[in-house]
Amino acid sequence: MQEKNERYKKEYHAKYKQDENRKTVQKSRCPYAKKCGGCQFIDMPYEKQLERKQKELKALLGKFARVSPIIGMEDPLHYRHKVHAVMGYEKGEPIAGVYQEKSHRLVRVDQCLIENEKADAIIQSIRGLLKSFKIKTYDEDSDRGLLRHIMVRVSHATGEIMVILVLRSPILPSKNNFAKALLKLHPEITTIVLNVNDKKTTMVLGQRDIVLYGSGFIYDSLCGVRFRLSPQSFYQVNPLQTEILYREALKLAKLTKKDKVIDAYCGIGTIGLIASRQAGSVLGIELNREAVKDAKENAKHNQCKNIEFACADAGEYMVEMAQAGEKADVVIMDPPRSGSNEAFLSSVCRLSPNRIVYISCGPQSLARDLDYLTAHGYRTERIQPVDLFPMTVHVESVVLLSKRMVDSRKVKVDFSLEDMDLSEFKGKATYEQIKAYVLEETGLKVSSLYIAQIKKKCGLDVGENFNLSKSDNARKPQCTPEKEDAIMQAFKLFGMI
Ligand code: SAH
User: Fold this and answer.
1) Of 106, 253, 304, 421, which cross-links 299 as Cys (Cβ 3.0–4.6 Å)?
2) How far does residue 334's CA lie from ligand 1's centre (Å)?
C-alpha cells in the first residue's frame, strides 16, 4: 500500500512537472477528459486547484468568517473508493463508462485517474466475461438487455471489496459460474450483490438486493470506528480526506460527556458514532432505511450504548422535537448538496444548541443556510474547507456556529441567551432581554422608551408602563434608524414579528 502510494506520488508529480514546463497543455492528461467532463480541473496543477477553491469559498463565505486554508491531499489521484460504471455497447462490444456531461451518451472509460485502480480493473474483468456468459448490457432506448451498471466499493481500511451488478431483471444466467469466474480473476472480492432495477429511471440502484456471494456488505473504519456498508447506504467516496474532515468537525464540536448531540443526515452513523465516544448521548437522524439499519448495526458492533437512530426526514423530525420542547447541546448536520430547509433550520434554532457543526459539500446552499442561522441567533466562528474531490470543482467545508451569548461584563441582567428557548418568546421578550440582545449584537444602548416606540410602530402590545398616547409618543425623543433596526432585529429573533 505504502509502496503504491509512493509510486502514485512520483508519477503524479512527474506528470505535473511536464505539464507545468510546457507553456500550454496541448493534450489533456486524461484521454476521456473532453467527453466525460467529470474532472473539470484535471489539467490544472493541484496547488492551483486548491488556490482556486480557496478563492471561491472566500468570495462566497467570507462575509460570515475568515475561511481557513483548505486542507488538500498529498496524493490527489485514485482517491475514489466507490466506483460506478454505466454499461452499454459500442460497435457491438460491451463497454463500461460514464454518461457524457449533460447528456445520456455513454463514453467508454477503461481507466480513470481519480478512481481506485483495483475497482477499475474489476469492472474491466466483468466486461471481459460478459460475452462468454452471454450477458447483454442494457439498452435504455429499447429497454432491452440485462446489465445496467456495475458498482464497486473498496474498503480503505480492510481492503474488502463489494461488487454490485445492477440488473434489469433478477435472473443472471449461470450466476454461480459467473461469480466463480470473477472470483478466480479477483480473489480479493469479498462480496457480490445483484441489485434489481427494472424501472426506466436515472437512479442507479433499484430497491431489491440479492446476495450472490459473501455477506452482502463490507466493513471499513474511520477514526478508529468500524462501519458496515450496504450496497444502498451513502458513504463518503474519499476515505482518507473523510477522516480529516471528521477530525476537524469533532475538534470544532468540543464535545463533553455532558453533551446531548444530534447527528442530522447521519447516513450509516459515521460522524455520530465517532462523536459518541466523547459525548453524553447522540441521536442520529437519517431518511434512508438501509442506512439506518447499518447505523444501528454499527452501534452494536462498536458497543456504543449512548447512541440512537431515527429513520425520518430530518426537517420533520426536528420540528417535532422542537414542538415537544426538547433541547440539544450540539447539532452536527451534514445534508446533501442541496443543503437543509427552513423547517429544519428554524427547529435547530428552537432546540437552541450551543454549537452547530455544519458539514457541507455545497458551498452555495451552505451560504444560504448560514444566512438563515446567522440571522437567527448564531455566529459563524470557523470555516474549514477540506478537499474531498481533487481534480473536480467540488469542495467540502466544515463550519462551526455558536449561539450568540450576552456578554455578562457589559450587561447586568439575570438571564443569558443560552438558557432561553426563543420559541417561547412570541411577543413576550422583556424590555431587559431586548436591550441585552441589542447591546450584545450592535454595542448600542437602547432605552425602554425606544423599544416601546418601535413596538407601537409594529403594532405590538407595549405593556402597561409604556402605553403611551400618540401625543406622548411624539413629545418623547425618537429612536435613531440604527437603533430602530437593531430593535427590529431583536423582535425578529424573539419571534415577536
Ligand atoms: N453524515 C453522513 C452522510 C452525509 S450525506 C456521512 O458523512 O457519511 C447526506 C445524507 O442525508 C444521506 O445519507 C441521505 O440519505 C440523507 N438525507 C437526504 N435527505 C434527507 C432528509 N430529508 N432527512 C434525513 N436524511 C436525509
Assistant:
1) 304
2) 7
Q: Tell which wins on pLDDT, 153 or 443.
A: 153
CA 25 – CA 43 distance, rounded (Å) = 8
Cell triple for residue 376? 437567527
For the cut 60, the answer to whether the pLDDT of residue 419 exceeds it is no
Say which of 39, 266, 361, 479 is annotated catalytic: 361
C-alpha cell at 399: 463550519
With beta carbons less than 8 A apart as the criterion, state whether 235 and 221 touch. Answer: no
Q: Would you call 386 helix, strand, or coil by DSSP?
A: strand
Query: Which of 227, 234, 342 to mutate to test ligand 1, by most ligand atoms within 8 A of the CB atom?
Result: 234
d(CA 205, CA 165): 9
How many whole angstroms separate alpha carbon 126 and alpha carbon 294?
Answer: 28
- Ligand 1, CB within 6 Å, residue ranges: 234-236, 265-267, 270-271, 285-288, 291, 313-315, 334-336
> Which of the listed residues 235, 286, 341 should we mutate to test ligand 1's pocket, taking the one with most ligand atoms within 8 A of CB?
286
**Longest Cα–Cα distance in the chain:** 95
493: pLDDT confidence band, cut at 50, 70 and 90? Answer: confident
Output the DSSP codes for 424-473. GGTTT--HHHHHHHHHHHHS----HHHHHHHHHHTT----GGG---HHHH
User: Would the pLDDT of 125 be above 70?
Assistant: yes
Give the list of residues 6+ apart from residue 117 with CB closer than 8 angstroms, or none: 78, 111
475 CA → ligand 1 middle, Å:
57
Q: What is the pLDDT of residues 341-391, one digit of tens each?
A: 999 999 999 999 999 999 999 999 999 999 999 999 999 999 999 999 999
Give per-residue pLDDT as tens, 126-159.
999 999 999 999 998 888 999 999 999 999 999 9
Query: How far is Cα 74 from Cα 46, in angstroms, rounded to an integer?
Result: 10
The closest-lying atom of ligand 1 relative to the alpha carbon of residue 266 is 1
Note if 361 is an active site residue: yes
Determine the residue type at 332: I
CA of 292 to the centre of ligand 1 (A): 10
